[in-house]
């Protein structure tokens, strides 16, 4: 960053700088995230579609994917980047969620291209088209195996995951101690204490799942790449099944009108540029019908980039409140200024 600042090219290199920040933010969650293992795409249908494009077109789309661009939905460095037929770049999660709900128009203003799950491509898909290989399954499954084995072999559990498991365990046990008699005498009145855990990265959710499994904590998962039916089922299980105490969830899947008042604990594993996206997430639990106080835990690592993101959030909250009144969701809160960046890199 210092180099960009000295050369006066911070604005031109905004996307690259966000990528640097992304790595710092991910390092706070778990070192494996920075190694950049890719989650495996399920969008196999898009290969057939991509094969019908001209070779020039495929090469052009691939080139767009490989320059670092920002996701047009969340305006952050894309996770599992995909390119749409119209050339716009998204996180797989961000765009998948759009095209599986009713609006299937490209979310970029003035683009108006209609998109479907078959018309967004990962770089893997495009490369297969160029090389003319037909067996995609071999590639997909071997990378899935690699990923799983690298997670299971690492006995290392990051501090955030450890802290999360500790909090969840204490929530579950606390309930068992204080409410055990009431439960037996009147099982319908006391609903068990439940928690939602949020992260921005599906990779972090994968790592967390691993620890939840080994701690025998029952959970459901919700992320932007799941089908509507499996999402509905996950939410229903979480709200109704007394054994399912935890929902782990991607912040990017947060813009559905979900109601999860069964939860009265919210744990945020990482920080988001736009504080209102976090507020929205917390509102999942904090809704009409919620009868208990909601506790929010935000896990951050001191003396890292996260401290500075937190104080930037405070500032933006104050600024947005005074300058924009009601329009809190606007891009103003998301875009970082040169001064913000200087601050984040401590220059
Ligand atoms: Zn995105
Ligand atoms: Zn578009």
UniProtKB/TrEMBL annotation:
<dbReference type="GO" id="GO:0016787">
    <property type="term" value="F:hydrolase activity"/>
</dbReference>
<dbReference type="GO" id="GO:0006281">
    <property type="term" value="P:DNA repair"/>
</dbReference>
<keyword id="KW-0863">Zinc-finger</keyword>
<dbReference type="InterPro" id="IPR001650">
    <property type="entry name" value="Helicase_C-like"/>
</dbReference>
<dbReference type="Pfam" id="PF00271">
    <property type="entry name" value="Helicase_C"/>
</dbReference>
<dbReference type="InterPro" id="IPR049730">
    <property type="entry name" value="SNF2/RAD54-like_C"/>
</dbReference>
<dbReference type="GO" id="GO:0008094">
    <property type="term" value="F:ATP-dependent activity, acting on DNA"/>
</dbReference>
<dbReference type="GO" id="GO:0005634">
    <property type="term" value="C:nucleus"/>
</dbReference>
<keyword id="KW-0862">Zinc</keyword>
<keyword id="KW-0067">ATP-binding</keyword>
<dbReference type="InterPro" id="IPR050628">
    <property type="entry name" value="SNF2_RAD54_helicase_TF"/>
</dbReference>
<feature type="domain" description="Helicase C-terminal">
    <location>
        <begin position="182"/>
        <end position="342"/>
    </location>
</feature>
<feature type="domain" description="RING-type">
    <location>
        <begin position="71"/>
        <end position="110"/>
    </location>
</feature>
<keyword id="KW-0347">Helicase</keyword>
<keyword id="KW-0547">Nucleotide-binding</keyword>
<dbReference type="InterPro" id="IPR013083">
    <property type="entry name" value="Znf_RING/FYVE/PHD"/>
</dbReference>
<dbReference type="InterPro" id="IPR001841">
    <property type="entry name" value="Znf_RING"/>
</dbReference>
<protein>
    <recommendedName>
        <fullName>RING-type domain-containing protein</fullName>
    </recommendedName>
</protein>
<keyword id="KW-0378">Hydrolase</keyword>
<dbReference type="GO" id="GO:0005524">
    <property type="term" value="F:ATP binding"/>
</dbReference>
<dbReference type="GO" id="GO:0008270">
    <property type="term" value="F:zinc ion binding"/>
</dbReference>
<keyword id="KW-0479">Metal-binding</keyword>
<dbReference type="Pfam" id="PF13923">
    <property type="entry name" value="zf-C3HC4_2"/>
</dbReference>
<dbReference type="InterPro" id="IPR027417">
    <property type="entry name" value="P-loop_NTPase"/>
</dbReference>
<dbReference type="InterPro" id="IPR017907">
    <property type="entry name" value="Znf_RING_CS"/>
</dbReference>
<dbReference type="GO" id="GO:0004386">
    <property type="term" value="F:helicase activity"/>
</dbReference>
